UniProtKB/TrEMBL annotation:
Residues 9-69 form the HTH tetR-type domain. This is TetR family transcriptional regulator. It comes from Rhodococcus erythropolis. The keyword Transcription regulation applies. Pfam families: TetR_N.
Length: 208
């Protein structure tokens, strides 16, 4: 039994790793289970046995990419969220949450853009895209409540909407991939732009 579980875990990991490549190019809608199996080095039957269908593979890929691991811990229960909310100063909280937001985008931006592209033509992709958008808003609302508690003049709705725009896969990709910014430059820009928009007037020193 232990050996079977180990094999299933290994196959799961291989399929998820392959899904990142296959779902980005040729894209989720065009990708087939056969292509996914070939990229993962497993049988088609293994893909169906471990996941059941293509949407389940995509959902698992998103979960692992967002988390950065395969732990079944929700984003809001992650230690970095507690650290952000526990920061005594709003700018300190902002730095922590933007840093981790950037790390998440490094792992997910290409997947999310592929998902968004597929959403217009694929019902399952559209559903997962909407779920992800809702999850991102929920996380930002939870975090920004903490900012407002530390800085009551901050408008919560503005904070959430601006954060979602600056920390979107589209903005990240335009600046880091398209314009060639480093991840650190992008992170500092997000912190400083949010701080200025929300009236938190201290800025982050740029790092060379």
């Amino acid at each position: 039994m232990t050996e079977v579980l180990r094999e299933d875990t290994s196959a799961r990991r291989k399929i998820i790793e392959a899904a990142r490549e296959v779902f980005v190019d040729p894209g989720y809608a065009a990708a087939t289970i056969k292509q996914l199996a070939a990229a993962a080095g497993v049988s088609v039957q293994s893909v169906y046995f471990v996941f059941g269908n293509k949407p389940s593979v995509l959902s698992a890929l998103l979960d692992v990419a967002v988390a950065g691991d395969e732990e079944k811990t929700a984003t809001l229960d992650r230690p970095w969220v507690a650290a952000a909310l526990g920061a005594p100063h709003p700018l300190g909280q902002l730095r922590i949450q933007v840093h981790h937001g950037r790390l998440i985008l490094e792992r997910t931006a290409d997947i999310l853009l592929a998902l968004r592209a597929a959403a217009s033509a694929d019902e399952d992709a559209a559903r997962l895209w909407q779920i992800n958008r809702t999850q991102r808003r929920t996380v930002q609302e939870h975090l920004m409540v903490g900012i407002v508690e530390k800085a009551p003049t901050v408008d919560l709705e503005t904070a959430v909407n601006v954060a979602l725009t600056l920390l979107s896969p589209e903005t990240y990709t335009d600046l880091v991939v398209g314009a060639g910014w480093t991840g650190q430059k992008y992170e500092e820009w997000v912190v400083n732009t949010l701080a200025a928009t929300l009236g938190l007037d201290r800025t982050v020193k740029s790092r060379k």
